[in-house]
Amino acid sequence: MRLREVCLLIGRDGTVLWSDASDSPVSLPDSRARWEAIWRLRGELEEISHSHPVGPLGFSAEDETTMEALTVALGRPVRFSVVAPDGMVVREEGKDRLVTVEPGWTGRLRTESGMPRAGSGCQAENSQHT
Hints:
The chain is α/β, with parallel strands linked by helices. The chain is 24% helix and 31% strand. It has one domain (6-124): Cytidine Deaminase, domain 2.
């Protein structure tokens, strides 16, 4: 499978509510469908995650502006995360932290992005929602 950035909208119990993908391993352009899904699912939405299949393990400048716009639009904080070949980083309450045990849905995100199942130093959590 080719490498590409993928976005997942995650609900309260780790359920994947919606997903989309780009044709590029280094960008995930804004899409009207994604913004409409975020708005439609805003009551259930807990986390917005996307992949960086060629890195970095962190948020890009474009990610930063998008996260700021989403937080303002939703009127409440949402957890954001990036999954990269060497791990996962989450932003909660304005602070970034590395994840040592990845949620089960990251297996789906990695597969759809063309990445290995788990980065070095990370374990995948068993989940019925993958």
